[in-house]
Design a protein that fits this description.
CATH architecture: Orthogonal Bundle
Order of helices and strands: HHHHHH
Oligomer: single chain
Keywords: Electron transport, Heme, Iron, Metal-binding, Signal, Transport
GO molecular function: electron transfer activity; heme binding; metal ion binding
Protein name: Cytochrome c
CATH class: Mainly Alpha
Number of strands: 0
Number of helices: 6
Radius of gyration: 17 Å
Shape: globular
Distance between the termini: 44 Å
Organism: Bosea lupini
Length: about 130
């Protein structure tokens, strides 16, 4: 009698994980919304926004040579998946006073895919 319960729990967990699976290719397509202001990859430079290599685990205002807003420098945030998801939905709500002018990405799946794309790049822009 316990086996059907375990099987049902496993199936539910698998389906939940599959439904939320990150799609790097879709994330790369979503990246097109970002690339006018940001770069990522080997040789990435700061543009209107900072380069985004090694974003996850980095502290706000930490990219050398980029002129951050006072709000961003003082935000005291370390980027992780949850913080990035909240930020990218509405940058000005997460960091009031940021100079990032972007309406945001509201779709959770698209955010997860973009996150997967960005997480490929280490601090030097090499794909991990």
């Amino acid at each position: 009698m316990k086996l059907p319960v375990v099987a049902a729990a496993f199936a539910a967990a698998f389906l939940t994980t599959s439904a939320k699976a990150q799609d790097v290719s879709a994330g790369e397509r979503s990246w097109n919304k970002c690339r006018a202001c940001h770069q990522v990859g080997e040789g990435a430079k700061n543009l209107v926004g900072p380069q985004l290599n090694g974003l996850f685990g980095r502290h706000t205002g930490a990219v050398e040579g980029y002129s951050y807003s006072t709000a961003n420098k003082g935000a005291n945030i370390t980027w992780d998946e949850a913080v990035f998801a909240e930020y990218i939905k509405d940058p000005k709500a997460k960091i009031p006073g940021t100079k990032m002018v972007f309406a945001g990405i509201k779709n959770d799946k698209e955010i997860a895919d973009l996150t997967a794309f960005l997480k490929q790049f280490d601090k030097d822009g090499k794909k991990m």
